[in-house]
Structures are given as structure tokens and as C-alpha cells.
């Protein structure tokens, strides 16, 4: 099933911008793409959510979200406080599986990190990935502190028997400091998964046409500079 679940080492790490980069690279490679934000918090009914932001940056994708809650909190907390029905992992998985019958690639973005709760029962994005049997891409921060959160995330994926697709640095600074430079070697070690790319800081503010042209180059470039689509599992499962 061509579903890639996109999580992060936390919130505000660049998951949405990375999702947009993967979507843009897939579109440029001629694939049809759907983007599903499992639960959107912190935006009002008329505001742009993460899936809309991906469409703005990447181009013509099918953009959807299961539910949105006004307060900028974990989805389970935001749903409870709003008196609204929470999102449960099976409905995210069902929606993603349906989109997968109609698209070459489905990108499912969580909210915050892997274990952020969607509902009172403690359902998370990890449960969604398990229900789908889908690989999980981890978006990591660039600098000091990322080794711990990346390893914790990778260990939890392994503990659950989930496949890690790899790690992408969500916001690579123009002038990387010493820990940031060292992390390029250390992140794949602690994640026990490949480093698949780094999205430059400020990429989300690029004009969309520039973003789309550059995106593939930020992700798992091959030696010839083309995008390594295989690394992102842009293919049918056997
Ligand atoms: N590479 C980047 N270029 C430009 N802006 C970025 C980049 N990475 C992150 N940002 C900015 O940092 C903020 C958080 O990024 P983003 O929305 O991608 O976080 P997230 O990990 O998707 O968080 P959430 O848990 O809310 O979904 C946004 O305001 C975004 O514009
Ligand atoms: C509002 C924010 N931007 C995200 N959508 C939700 C992040 C929840 C993080 C919860 C936590 O890990 O403490
Ligand atoms: Mg996001």
C-alpha cells in the first residue's frame, strides 16, 4: 500500500514543510499524491490547515483532514475541551487506505510527535501506522537535542514492529553549528535508519514554484542529483 506516515520528533519541527517536499518531489516524478492530516489543531474553520499548506507549496494534491479543533493542543486534549468527538486511529487508517486506492502515494501527517494522543483511549499515529502496516518517516530537528528525541522515536517504532522509512531534517540552517554538522553522521546511527534529506530553513516561505523545483534536491539525492523515489517507497507494495 503506497502510504507513508510522517511523524516528527515533536511539534514545529518541519513535518508539514517536509510533507510538502515529499509531495512536490512525487508530483514532479509524475505520481498522484494525497495528503491527509490526521487531526488538525489550533486553526479556525476558515484558516489554512497543514494539508492546505502542503497543497499550496507542492501543487495539485488531494488534501484532507479528518477533523480540526480550535485550540493549539494535542488532538485528544483539544477534542475533549471543545466537547467534540475525537479522532480515532481506525478512522484515519480507513481514510488513508481509501485514498491509497485512488493515488500513487498517500502521506499521512500526525500532530506533534509519534505518541501524541488523538483520543481518550490513548490512540496515536503509531496505531495508525500499525493498522496500515505503513512505513514511518521521522522528521527531526537539526541541532543540539535532536539525538535523544530521534532515538526515542526510533526505539518506539522498533518496539511496535513498525518500519522506519528514515529521517529527514525538517529545517536545515543556513549556517549549521557544530552539533548540527555532527548530527548528519549521528542521526542515522541513533535512528538505525537512513538520513533521507534535509529541508533548508526558510523553504516554507519560498514562492511555490521555487519550492517545487527545489524539493526533490533536498530529499535522498542520488549521486546524479535525481531524487531517490525508492527511498520514499513510491511504489506498490509487493
Ligand atoms: N524548512 C522550513 N522552512 C520554513 N519554515 C519552516 C521550515 N521548517 C519549519 N518551518 C516553520 O516552522 C513552523 C513549524 O513548522 P511545521 O508547520 O512544518 O511544523 P510541524 O512539525 O508540521 O508541526 P505540527 O505538529 O504543528 O504539525 C512553521 O511556522 C513553519 O513555517
Ligand atoms: C498545536 C500544534 N501545532 C500541534 N498541531 C499539536 C502538538 C501537540 C503536542 C503535544 C505534546 O507533545 O506535548
Ligand atoms: Mg504540521
Automatic annotation (TrEMBL):
It is found in: Cytoplasm. Its EC number is 6.3.3.3. Coiled coil: none annotated. Its cofactor is Mg(2+). Signal peptide: none annotated. InterPro entries: DTB_synth_BioD (IPR004472), P-loop_NTPase (IPR027417). The keyword Ligase applies. Pathway: Cofactor biosynthesis; biotin biosynthesis; biotin from 7,8-diaminononanoate: step 1/2. The keyword ATP-binding applies. It catalyses: (7R,8S)-7,8-diammoniononanoate + CO2 + ATP = (4R,5S)-dethiobiotin + ADP + phosphate + 3 H(+). GO terms for cellular component: cytosol. Keywords: ATP-binding, Biotin biosynthesis, Cytoplasm, Ligase, Magnesium, Metal-binding, Nucleotide-binding. Homodimer. Belongs to the dethiobiotin synthetase family. Catalyzes a mechanistically unusual reaction, the ATP-dependent insertion of CO2 between the N7 and N8 nitrogen atoms of 7,8-diaminopelargonic acid (DAPA, also called 7,8-diammoniononanoate) to form a ureido ring. This is ATP-dependent dethiobiotin synthetase BioD. It comes from Streptomyces actinomycinicus. The gene is bioD.
